[in-house]
Amino acid sequence: MSDVNDGDWVVGEPKWWWKYVMPQEAWFWEAVLVARSRAQDPEPSPWLQAVSAKVLEGLAMLNAAARAATSAEASKLKTEAAAMINKAVAAVR
């Protein structure tokens, strides 16, 4: 099979110089991610950050409830954590 340039794809037997022309997979995906991040608004969304912060805070409260000294403290933390997570999720809907 002879070397044919069919659009952007090179067909044929691999050549030694392809490593200089064809990007490595890691470099390729890094370039894609950089291009995608530049195409979008670089500023993070404060609304999305607030929602994720509340969910993470609720998860931290659940973690603290698992390590609580008494069952009363654990129950209070679980109740507050559930309320916080539900409120954050309701804001997404």
Description:
There is one protein chain. The chain is mainly alpha-helical and 93 residues long. The chain contains four helices and two strands; from the N terminus they run ββαααα. A two-stranded antiparallel sheet has the order 1-2. β1 and β2 form a beta hairpin. α3 (46-66) runs antiparallel to α4. The longest helix is centred in the last third of the chain and has 22 residues, at 71-92. The chain is elongated and about 70 Å long. The model has no long low-confidence stretch (mean pLDDT 78).
Share of residues in helices: 55-70%
Oligomer description = single chain
| Uncertain regions spanning at least 5 consecutive residues | none
Rounded average pLDDT: 78
Helical element count? 4
Please provide the ordered H/E string of secondary-structure elements: EEHHHH
N-to-C span: 57 Å
How much is the radius of gyration in Å? 26 Å
Strand order of the largest sheet: 1-2
Q: State the shape.
A: elongated
Largest sheet: 2 strands, antiparallel
Supply the helix-strand structural class.
Answer: mainly alpha
Strand content: 5-15%
Compute the number of strand runs: 2
